[in-house]
Amino acid sequence: MNDSSRTRRDFLVKGAQMAGAAASVGFIWHALVKSEARASAGALRPPGALAERDFAAQCIKCGQCVRACPYGTLSLASVAGPAATGTPHFEPRTVPCYMCPDLPCTRACPSGALDPALDDVNRARMGLAVIDEEHCLSWQGLRCEVCYRVCPLRGKAIVINTESRKTSRHAVFEPMVDSEHCTGCGLCEKSCPTELAAIRVLRPEFVQGRIGAHYRMQDKASRSGQAADAPAAAPSPRIAAPKPQAAPGVDYLNQAAPP
Amino acid sequence: MTSLTRRAFMKSGIAAATAATVGITVSQEALAQAKAAEAGWSWDKGVCRFCGTGCGIQIATKGGQIVAVKGDPDAPVNRGLNCIKGYFNGRILYGQDRLTRPLMRMKDGAFDKRGDFVPVSWDRAMDEMERQAKRALAQKGPTGIAMIPSGQSLIQEGYTASKLMKAGFRSNNIDPNARLCMASAVAAFYQTFGVDEPANNYDDIELADAMILWGANMAEAHPVLWSRITDRRLTARTTKIVNITTFANLSSDIADLEIVMKPNADLAIQNYVAREIIARNAVNREFVDRHCVFATGPADIGYGMRPTDKFAFPAEKDVQGQELVHVLDKHEAVGQRKEPGTRVEQKNRTSAGKHWLISFDDFKKAVEPYTLDFVAELAKGDPDEPLDKFKAKLVELVDIYVDPKRNVMSFWTMGFNQHIRGVWVNEQCYATHLLLGKHARPGNGAFSLTGQPSACGTAREVGTFSHRLPADMLVDNAAHRKTTEEMWKLPPNTLNPKIGSDIMAILRDLEDGGVKFLWIQTTNPFQSTPNANHWLKAAREMDSFIVVAEAYPTVTAKVADLILPAAMIFEKWGGYGNAERRTQLWRQQVDPPGEARSDVWMMLEFAKRFRLKDVWGEKAVAGVKADGYPDGKLPDVLAEAQKLGYTPETTLYEALFATADNRKVAWPDPVAKGHGNSTVKALKEGWFVEKALFEEYRRFTVAKQHDLAAFDVYYRDDVRGLRWPVVDGKETKWRFVEGHDPFVKKGEGFNFYGPLLKALPTGNLDDVTDPKPTSLAGKAKIFFRPYAAPVEQTDANFDLWLCTGRILEHWHTGSMTRRVPELHRTAPTAVMYMHADDAAKRGLKRNDVAWIESRRGKVKVVVETKGRNRMPKGSVFVAFFDEAVFINKLVIDASDPISREPDYKKSAVKVYKA
């Protein structure tokens, strides 16, 4: 770690804190620390960050994680930044997270806003990569797939699905993101060669839907061990329940038969 | 393999992919907007600047700038697609540090080898070039001058360079960077078929039921061809893809069978395949009896290194010593039917290519030792793979080859060619296909892919090699010289009959003072050649003058004495020829920037400065021995020249280029359709240089089974290149086979009509027994070639194999692609792919910086244990595009002694924490 990069990171930390302090003229620092999260979809947090509301509550904006990052990935948000002022975030198109196996940023966090229990960087969920298929060169048939090749979890977080192009004798190599493995490190967004990246990392809550709890997808179910050949449910218990005097719908049901 | 498994991946699109689907209604407004944005654009066809695939592109220009490119939907190779390099074709011209003025090393107003680069005028630059070239001629004769062109030189550039060097300066010291990539393929084509270049073509991909890659990572090196192979695999489900390699790579992703082998084990595996073909009674007797003969050659051929240790670094001396005497290891001994430990004097170092006929029984006897047990034990490349599993894979490989219901294509590139026995492995692959009768038929063939866009079209077909003349003719063949002299209107015995220095020899000549004047075009050999520390030092310390014509500052430009700013691809008229014999020509699209000029213009202007009396008098050339030549000399041909209408004062420009015929080809020409011509404009002579030279060159090809179409034909709107031979306006898809090749007569079935090396003595597996030559007209040769071990082996000190090569994102040494910021961002630096356990053993983890060191040098590199290549324990891979990770200087400069092509795929290195 050389001096200049140390200086740069100190600047990033102090600069943001100073900006925060300057912006809070008339407030006390405590108020700034307590300022609520007005985070937008773009603000990506360091690995191990708690869910946004908890993170905002616990982060003391000390900048230790920014100092610890060997790549200059993290910075503290300035007043006009995409995250609550003074909180750490990164912009993958500028500098992505290089997924250090020893998690120096997480380890440096004194407040628990970055979960000290995270011990494997591959389990970090900083964001989720999403692909704009309309402007993705690979989806349009070009042999690009840069995102796939730079992905640190290549073959897991980003996979290639090959399909016949049908309009010629060529195959299309479609990159696809698997949310089960994508950490949101952003190397794909950083490396995407289109003018504006056709693959972006967003926080999962802004991207992912959720199917109803009453339904289980076949393959998801089999993945979670609830295979189709699971043992049959136990027979329903025979309970002699008293017949209700009144019950919803009974009025209607006991009316005369429809004409 | 994983990517073929269809799982329910989350397709998390920002927008649904609706516009991509067919049938969407695009609003009239949107169409009008798109049209308005393209107002004033003019589109014209071109060819991708990068690999040997030869994708067609369309180029849009406006106001003298290239504003856009797109894949050409009518191009049969790529049907409108490109790879990520091709996507940036238009941008490579516009790097910020484009060279636009001649730069010369100067001190106190004069050239000085120790001076700094200073901008000078073209006149000043040419004055110095003339002075230095004349000094070299005076000191060393014709061989004191050398030139290194390129497999990326345009057809006309290669032709000009070859004629200037061979007819003008009478020096055969011209050799392209294609020596570094295709020379082994060429020599194998000559020896096997008597003529260069593939019988098959890309259409075979859609006709094959199995495609076998030997040392070719096509997923990265031939990206668009790979999408055709993948499509075939997807749409014809029984198709099998086999990837035979020294490490798992992206081509493994769709492979049905991946065979990870040890370096050089391809020699043994192929002999096992041949043995099994015979054992399983799968030889196509009818085909073999009618169209093939069996042959072999000596095994004691050395390793293409210097025969002396005078120039070796101390650490290099042990390996260099094997150049003269090699001790057989246990596998070589079995494979060559000798005792382990035998000391073999390398007697055939300078006659490595000689070969003779043997019988089928000899062939059978020769492959007999290559049993499954022997080969599997020798070849298994992944120490973690169980031997039985590996054996099963070898058996499956044979199953695929011999299956009578399968059409089989074999493809290879640098794994075969950059190989100390590269010619042998090429020949073995032909042997497999010939034994099975699966060659030169639709869907069946052994296909040598090329790396560079015009390795075929320029380097090979024009003949910019030290041993070649146009259209497969050779400098050491009296009849070929005579034909060439007549075509070029030269006095008899003008051409130098002695094969010149190949590219590695030219660099060694720089080191030992043999070459005094070197002109390099369209290539960056000081970054790309192996063991470059030798030549880097020589370039700056020896008394020589190095001219580099370049578009950007490269390592090579940095060690030059004079840098000439060169026009790039679409800034001039030109043509390329791809791997399937497809010749494609384009118009100039934009003018070169500043004072940059085309290489053709540079050479023509240079030619104006030499008169016949300077070059066609008697010249000493050591080693010349040929009829009509005094020993060690080229004769004075000035008197004969007078009979042809020349005077001693005639310039080389007038005698070789601005001939009466060529001057008749006038500029402007209707074919230009308003496009400019920077060469003609700068030359100010009014003749259409590129057309005249192409038509002159074309005369060599007509009726020589190399037939090219007329210049104008390639510019027709309905033509997207044509595969030669083009006879009666029709291209040829499959050569040597009746019904497709116009030179094969009815009833012949096949005719391997290549004329070279078609009269051979007869012998046994060890030597010639009957020197009387037998004619083999029309036949192909099935060679036996034994296993040979890599000359440099891993040991306790240098304990890892290093392989170097390309990645998809960057072209060669990165001089163009690294200047496109978007491409640079995709792969900013070369990394070292390594097995995680190998890294851990050395205290390294992913993203750490490590030293990688060989006997020849060391560099720092970032460790990558997870990336696109999955290395077996014991091997590392580093790409060579990155100037800051100058990896090829670590590579041994051992070469195939027949082809003189270096082996970049197996150097011994060690890796330790930086």
Describe the model:
The complex is a heterodimer of chains A (259) and B (914). Chain A has 9 helices and 6 strands. Chain A has 259 residues and is of the alpha+beta class. In chain A, strand 4 and strand 5 form a beta hairpin. Chain B has 5 domains: 2-94, Phosphorylase Kinase, domain 1 (2-Layer Sandwich), CATH 3.30.200; 141-163 and 453-522 and 535-722, Rossmann fold; 194-297 and 353-448 and 765-783, 3-Layer(aba) Sandwich (Dimethylsulfoxide Reductase, domain 2), CATH 3.40.228.10; 300-350, no CATH class; 800-913, Beta Barrel (Barwin-like endoglucanases), CATH 2.40.40. Chain B contains 30 helices and 35 strands. In chain B, a hairpin with a 3-residue loop joins strand 17 and strand 18 (473-474). Chain B starts with 27 loop residues before the first helix and ends with a strand. Residues 1-25 of chain B have low confidence and may be disordered. The interface between A and B is large, with 55 and 57 residues.
The rough form of chain B would be described as globular
Largest sheet report of chain B:
7 strands, mixed
Structural class of chain A: alpha+beta
Mean pLDDT across all residues of chain A, rounded? 82
Q: What's the tally of helices of chain A?
A: 9
- Beta content of chain A comes to 5-15%
Count of β-strands of chain A: 6
Q: What distance lies between the first and last C-alpha atoms of chain B, to the nearest angstrom?
A: 36 Å
Number of E strands of chain B:
35
Helix content of chain A: 10-25%
Reading side by side through the largest sheet of chain A, how are the strands ordered? 1-2
Principal-axes shape call of chain A: extended
Radius of gyration of chain A: 25 Å
Low-confidence segments of chain A, given as residue ranges, are 19-39, 220-230
Biggest beta-sheet profile of chain A:
2 strands, antiparallel
Uncertain stretches of 5 or more adjacent residues of chain B: 1-25
Rounded to an integer in angstroms, the radius of gyration calculated over CA atoms of chain B is 27 Å
